[in-house]
Structure formats: C-alpha cells, structure tokens
Amino acid sequence: MIMAALSLGLLFLFPMWKIYLKAPQYPEGLEMHIWVNKISGSSESVLQNFNILNHYIGMEPIHAESFAELRIMPYIVIFFMITGVIVALVGIRKLILAWALLLMVGGAVGITDFYLWLVRFGTHLNPNAPIKIPGMTYIPPLLGSKELLNFDALSLPSTGSLGILLAVVFSGLAFYVSRKKKISQKVTA
Amino acid sequence: METLINKFRKMAPKAALLMAVTAGAALQSCNKMGGEGAATAEGLDTDAASKVYVAPGKHDELYSFLSGGFNGQVSVYGIPSGRLLKIIPVFSQFPENGYGYNEETKAMLNTSHGFIPWDDLHHPKLSRTDGMADGRWLFVNGNNTPRVARVDLKTFETVEIMEIPNSAGNHCSPYPTNNNEYVIAGTRFSVPLDMEGKTADVSMNEYKDKFKGSISFVKVDKETGDMELDFQVLVPGFDYDLANGGKGPSTDWVFFTTYNTERSNTLKELGASQNDKDYLAAINWKLAAKYAAEGKAHEMPANYYHNKMDHGTFQAKSTIKKKVRYLLPEECPGMMYLIPAPKSPHGIDVDPTGEYMVVNGKLASSLPVFSFSKMQQAIKDKAFDGEVSGIPVFKYDAVLQGEVKEPGLGPLHTEFDGKGNAYSTMFVSSEVVKWSLKDLQVKDRIPVYYSPGHLMIPGGDTEKPYGKYLVVMNKITKDRFLPTGPELMHSAQLIDISGDKMKMLLDFPTVAEPHYAQGIKADLVAANSAKFYKLDENKHPQAVKNEKDVNVTRKGNVVTVKMTAIRSHLTPDNIEGVQVGDTVYFHVTNLEQDWDVPHGFAVMGANNAETLIMPGATQTLKWVPKQEGVFPFYCTDFCSALHQEMQGYVRVSPKGSKVPVKFSTGEPKPVPPATASVN
C-alpha cells in the first residue's frame, strides 16, 4: 500500500499527458507536456510557439496561469499520498478500497476536466480570427491522433499517469493480499 | 641553379605551345558537341554522380569555408555536394541582413582610417586544438586595410575584427599555431614606418633604406577566442606572401615565403623577379614570445582599432589601441633564419609529420622540399651563407631534402593527404599534380579548368588530413558554366583522392574569388550550431521583451522606437509624431523563440539596408525622414502565412509640428495577439 502512495510521486517527476504536433514545416515536431502542476514542452518556448500557431485560427492563448487546476492538483496528489500512507499504517482493509475508488474517481474527474478544456480551446474561437473555416473546430484528441489542418495531433498519457495506474494496481494488490491474510488468520484461528 | 633556369626558359615556349594546342583541341571538341559545354574533365570518375549526390534531406559529409576574396566574405559549401550553405559577411557591408548597416554592427568595420565597408578576404583558417581543426572559430584576413577577423562557428557570425598596425597588404595571414597560442599575420607590402603608428612621407626611391615589413603575433584567449596583439617582429623590407605553421617536431616554428628580396619599388613584375632565389623565412614563435616576455621588446606608439561583438547585447564596440610592442631580429639570436628558395615563391606548406617544408616557387621549374631536421642541424653547424639585416641565411644545400623535378608549370600551393602524398596546384599548366614525399617523384596529374590557385584537402594543413577529397579553386572559368556576360563566377572542382589515381567528381561555381579554404567533418561544427538566441539572455539596452513594454519617445530631434516583431505583427504598427529631419532609431526585438523564424525590417525611403533580426535578438535601423507624409514599414522575411500583413505606418509631420508622439497596435483587438511568454 505504501508503494501505491509513493507511485503517485511519479506525477511530480514526469508529465501526465503529452500532446504531439507534427506539420511539414515542423520536422522536429512540437510537444506540449501537461504536468500535475505546470505546462512545459519539448523546448523551453513551446507554449509560445503553440500560441503563435493557434492565434491564426483564433484559439485563446494557453497560459499556465489560466488553469486553476495546476494550482489545486498538486495538493490533491499530496492528499492522496498522505492518506495512502495513513491507510497503509492503519491497516483497515475497507479504507484501502475506499482510497483506491476515490483515486479512480479523482482520475476520471481529471480526465473529464482535461477533455472539457480541449473542447473549450477547440471551439471557443475568436470570431475575428484570420483563418476561418466554416464548421471547423479544433478540438485536439484526448487520446490518439487527429488531423487538424496542416497538423497531425497525437495525444497520449505519459509516465506521470502511470503513477496513478500503479497506485490503483498496488492498492488493489494490497487489498487482495490483505484478504488472503484475513483468510489465513481465520484458518489459524 | 643556372641550368634549371635555362631549362625553364627553354621549356616555357614549348609549354605555351602545348597550351595553345590543348586549348585548340578543346575548342574543336566543343564545336563538335554543338557548342554546348566545355571540355569534359579528363579523369572523370565513372561513378562521379553517386559520389557527389547528397539525397534530398540528407546532409553533407563536410563543411568547407571558402574565402570570397574581393567580396570580403566567406562562403560555406557542403562537401561533396558543392551546395552553397551560407555567406558570412566579414569585412563587407551585407544588405541582405544589415551587417555593417544597422547600428549594432557598424562598429565592426571601424578602422584607424574611418569606416571601411569592404576588404579583400584571402585566407580562412580554422582554430586548432592539438594541431587539429576544432570547429570553434574561423580566422580570416583582410588584405587591403590590414585586419584579422574571427568568425564564431556557433552562430556563423563575425564577432571580432582587429586592425594590424605597421602592415600593408595583410596577405601573409592569419596562421594559427597548433593550439591557437598565436594567430600570425605578415605584411605583403613593406612600407616606410615612421615608428609612431603611421607610414612615413618618404620618396619611393628610398625603398631599400626606409621600407620595413612586420609580422604580428596575435594572442588568442583559450576560452573566449578574443584576440590581442601581443607583439610584432620588424623584418627586412621584402614582400611576405604566405605562411604555414610547423607541426610535431617543428611545432614551435612558423615559415613565411618572401619575394621582392630585390627590394624593388616599381614595376615589381620585373623588379621583384631578378634574384634567382628569394627566401623562406623561419621564425621560432615560442622563442619570440619568450624574448617578448623577457623584456627584449621595444614599444612604439600605434593607432589601430579592435572591434568586438558582444553576444549578450548584440552590439559591436570599438576600442582604439595606442601602443604596440616589437622585436628586432638582430637583437634576438636564434629567433629568425632565412632559407634561400626559388624565385618568388607563393605557398609554403609543412607536411603532416612536420618534417618537410614544401616551397611553391611560382616561377621555378622544380619544387624544393626542405627538411626541418636538416635545418636544426644547420643551426648547430652554423651552415650559413651570410646574413641579411642580422638574420642568418642558410646554405641552400644544407637544408634541402630534395627537389621534385618537372612537377608542372607555375606551382602555387601544396596540401597533403596524410598517406605520404602531396598535391600541388600548377597555375600555368592548369593541373593538380600528385607526388610522393618519400621519393619526390610525380605519381599522377589531372588537368583542372582553368589555372588553379589554391587547393584544399580537409585538414590538409594539419597533422591528420582527411585524405578523401580535394577541392581546387580555379582562377579562370571561361566556358565551364552557362555564360553570364563578361563577369563570371569562379569555378571550383572536387577531386576524389582516395585511390592511386585522382578522379574528377564535380564542378561548382563559387562566389567572388576564393583564395583558400578550410574543410572540416560536419559533426565538429553542426552539433554546436545555435538555433536562436534566448530572449532571456538578450541584454540589448533597447530590447523589449514583452509587447506591453514597447514605446516611442522623443528627446530633442532623436526619436527612439522600441518595438517588437512576432508572427504576424509589429508592435507598434502605427506611429505618429515623427518630424522631418528627426533621427529615428527603430530598435526591433524579435520575440520568436523558434528555429528559423527571422523577421526583417525596412522603412520606405530609408537611406539604409534592411535589418534582419534573428529570434531573440534586437537590431536597430536608423532613419532620417526627409519629407512629410506617411511611410510604410514591414517585415521583409516571409515569416508566416500572414507575413504580407506584417506591416505598419509612420506619420512624418513638418518640423515643429504639433502632432504628438503616439503609437499603437491593433485597437480594437482584432486578433488575440500571441504575446511572448518565455517561461
């Protein structure tokens, strides 16, 4: 169970999600990395370069400051890590299950929130944009690839998200193992 | 020697006849082909096309840096494709990017004679570590108004130009020692020095008494590459032509060819061709540096400029140096010697082992090879044949290893393949000749088109040549390419030297007149090539890093515009309050932080070039409006899909007008501007 709590720490070491953009004049590709607490990219100025490209279609500029989530999420992760350790020490089996379920809900909320942002950016376009294509929206894919004008956008979870997955797996394992223990305790009793 | 000269005299008419016959044959074959193209190269590799073919998207194996001669620039070509990769302006203004026109770079071209927008750039030399080109810097010379420049190979930009005092025709320059301890620059024209920083007002008839040469020792900072003139050696009033540093055992020495040892002051084509032998000068630079450090140096007033580009502020600054130290050979025993060498030699080339010094006597019929170990022995044995101005002259035979007999006509320059072979250009007989350093026998010859000057084997002047290719730079082009009127590009040819026989691979046109070149494996340079400047590190005093901070201010009749450029707008793009006769400075910061997104800036009616601003940099264009009206400005480098929209206007009112200074971009906001947000 401690492993489960600790694996969430990966979220601070690696990005959760990566969006890859590829276009003819960007042979090296552009990568946006979404972390639990920040937005970065394959190069230092990737956000600026994303924004320059996006402003032609009237997309709102992306700034890390505009996402309250980036400020809140680290606390949520720390909350899960601390409670995870507590659950491990207390050793009440039901709490493990509750913790794991709560984490899964948290993850699902996170992904939904992420998707809503994508929709917002992709559809909330400036009506005076220089490039307007009737009916066209620019919602980047949540998972997988999609063609947006001259760009191939690919969106994939990254190592950070593995932390959540591992946390869920480890806590599940802890739940399972402790069940066995209970059985063996019962038998010996 | 008499006999040799006689032989040459006899040979010369025959050679001329031979040339005429060959030319005739070439013309005839030309006619047969319906006048299309010139003589196909003899020795053409049957698989030449695939050997020089660099498929789309692939990179060349080597960089080559060819001097531009009278354009004052360096051209960078990929080898083996012969594709032009870049032109680097050094001593010449370059309207293409504003070098020498914008306020930041003007100071690079300052000299003690004022601002000079041009020079004659002859010899590129790569900086060295342990005798090998290290790909950090390229040193080049300015011949006409003596200067040495340094190009930084991270940015391919000229970052330093230093004037050389007491010199005229800085031809014998710039030769780096094996760890860049010094870059050495010798004067081609000797001049009467007034010993106060100028040339003296004397009659040319006083040449023999009053004219002196100088050889400058420029120190190079190991970390930054910054140059500093440490000292000069004042030498007899000959012409100093070319130089080459020793290697291995001869690493402490540098050798110079001289001509006009007759010290003729007029009609030098005859006057300087009377002596049967001129000299190869040898200087022990380590000993010279020691003498200079130990107080043997004198000091005299001087007046020379040292211009440096600051990478942080993007601004060049000139400092004026007022003193120079010098050594006199007669006071410094063991520092300098003279070796008799056949008539008016051009190239001096030291082989990779450092043992052999090859002298290319352009009017001689044989190619002498001198031995460094014999020279050391001759110093011990005092095998001298008199002296000139206190400098001992060796006995020819005491230092001679041997002569390459009948190598061809008009040998100019030699380089080495590292496999025991030397390759020499023959200007008059228009060929490259391969010969062996072991037995001094000619092994192969290949005609080149036409009249080669220098040749270059990548690393062919270092301890370990890359003996696969040879680039020969020809002085005469004539029918090699489609005709382009009277003025033609020069022609270079690429030759495969990996086998026993030289194989011709490629002709390619070169910009202006390459005199010499350097070649280096691509990875030594490409890996360090900068992609853009970091906006964070931009320390230009007028830089604006955020569109919110742009402004236009007036102080007297100077209007300062601090503006920004980013795809696809200039901020501000509407400016008012400028008056006729104002001096307007547009300080443009390129906010982009992406590779290959320069923005250009130009204003209608500016008596100036555009300025091209690299991402993260700030450049300044000066404009003095001469009439009232509205003047458009725009981005000159197609930067984006909305490049054509990247434009603005300045309103110019009459002098003393009440129109206030005002500036804006985009009101009401039509497009969410992509503001810069580094970090």
From TrEMBL, chain B:
Q: Which PROSITE patterns match?
A: COX2, PROKAR_LIPOPROTEIN
Q: Which organism is it from?
A: Pontibacter mangrovi
According to the lineage, what is the superkingdom?
Bacteria
Q: What is this protein called?
A: Sec-dependent nitrous-oxide reductase
Q: Where in the cell is it found?
A: Cell envelope
Q: Which UniProt keywords apply?
A: Copper, Metal-binding, Oxidoreductase, Signal
Q: Which Gene3D superfamilies match?
A: Cupredoxins - blue copper proteins (2.60.40.420), YVTN repeat-like/Quinoprotein amine dehydrogenase (2.130.10.10)
Q: Which SUPFAM superfamilies has this protein been placed in?
A: Cupredoxins, Nitrous oxide reductase, N-terminal domain
Cellular component aspect of the GO annotation: cell envelope
Q: Where is the signal peptide?
A: 1-25
